[in-house]
Amino acid sequence: MRNRENLIPVYYRLAEDIKKIIESGVLKDGDLIPTEAQLCEQYAISRMTVRQGLALLAEAGLIETVRGKGSFVTRPRLNQLVIDLNHNATSKEQIRYTLLGVNLIRNNGEFAEKLGFTGEANVITIKRLMFKGNLPVAIEEKFLRYQKGKPLLETQLEYADFPEVVAKHQESVPVRNDMRIFVAALSAEQANLLAAEGSQPALGIKQLIYSEDDKLLGVATMICHKDRFELKATSYPLSGRL
Amino acid sequence: MRNRENLIPVYYRLAEDIKKIIESGVLKDGDLIPTEAQLCEQYAISRMTVRQGLALLAEAGLIETVRGKGSFVTRPRLNQLVIDLNHNATSKEQIRYTLLGVNLIRNNGEFAEKLGFTGEANVITIKRLMFKGNLPVAIEEKFLRYQKGKPLLETQLEYADFPEVVAKHQESVPVRNDMRIFVAALSAEQANLLAAEGSQPALGIKQLIYSEDDKLLGVATMICHKDRFELKATSYPLSGRL
DNA sequence: GAGTGGTCTAGACCACATA
DNA sequence: ATGTGGTCTAGACCACTCC
What we know:
The structure is a homodimer.
Chain A: H1 10-24, H2 36-43, H3 47-59, E1 63-66, E2 70-73, E3 80-84, H4 85-89, E4 95-105, H5 109-115, E5 123-132, E6 135-145, H6 154-159, H7 162-169, E7 174-185, H8 188-193, E8 201-211, E9 216-225, E10 231-234
Antiparallel strand pairs in A: 1-2, 4-5, 5-6, 6-9, 7-8, 8-9
The structure holds a DNA duplex.
């Protein structure tokens, strides 16, 4: 049953066929698609191959399969949106950074505690300014536990994204990133750095990086010029493979 | 080879085992995990079962498989964060809405054009106020093409999320939701509705809903009180099944 | 040529839902 | 009791990578 003239796998064709039927509106939210046995017959393929196709559709959020009942059409989860920080940072215009400072805050339990680092007194801070072209657009501040014998390389400071920096400097493996997005006021110093009026607000982004055992590994904050930066999110990436 | 005493499938156990090895740091970013043949032997299971387990890990972003080479450990994509609008709206405190108005803007091409609705002159607008407890937190405005014979039910206006409202009122199936997040200024009217000072900024969220053929189906904007609303996103949901 | 993952088969038994 | 999806087998051939 393997395709010859066309190189795409059978299970992929099946998934695309059903996807088109759903997106054309013939099958609506809640409808049952043909059973696996029926699809085996229709396409003259074995059941595992059918299931591979349905798995694609389920992953894309187009169907939901229920044991003993069948596979139901579901509206794609458009209320789940993905923010891709890499893409947000590298769109269109040239991005560059200037390093404002790297510090090791030693034996300051209060400082560490305030950030959320429990049982740790030594914290590395990294501060840099992000530019689009020649305009300053955001102030980044990063905080991570100081780990002896794991030096931070300058290239990591300049270019790497934050989870990568954390991964490189920690023994623990970062597995979760929680983000808050909010409106922030600019301090005089921040306004100066961003070449903005002191009275204007900014977009604030705070990231918390955790390990599997929920230990806080790193904190990152971005204060973004309100007219030069905006976050984009989209529902699309999830079904990108179909 | 099916498990007896414990009910969880073999492929799932395999995936969990490898996940633990990765998260413990024994296998690092870029390392090869055992080949499928080796895993077949180790677990004394068939290859399709091994592949089902590896598929779980790949979906969670913990490994990447390359044909002819093997499966490599990858750091989880912590730079891809998911905003769950349903969850953001239904966390902790009681959320309720008051409907401020529903209008049908007829034969106003300029109005439709400005929103991005091409070739359409009739637009439905829905405006409502969101409360947490007794505090107004956000003003929602929604715009969608008017479709004859597809009435909007009041229950839909009050409770449903926007993509659902669009799906119910349109022939076309909504398949993509693009979102922008930004800092907005409050108009006098908006400040009044939110019981806020007129000079203060707000968090703005704009959603654009598209069909498969990239036709704009709906637009939603939220203007959120800066101290009473914040967006949360997390990297975790993707690997939630493991 | 040897080793790897990608696709596919033709069965089997099981758990669950429905009537 | 029947029909559904969930798990699993023991093979097979293919495409690709690397030596």
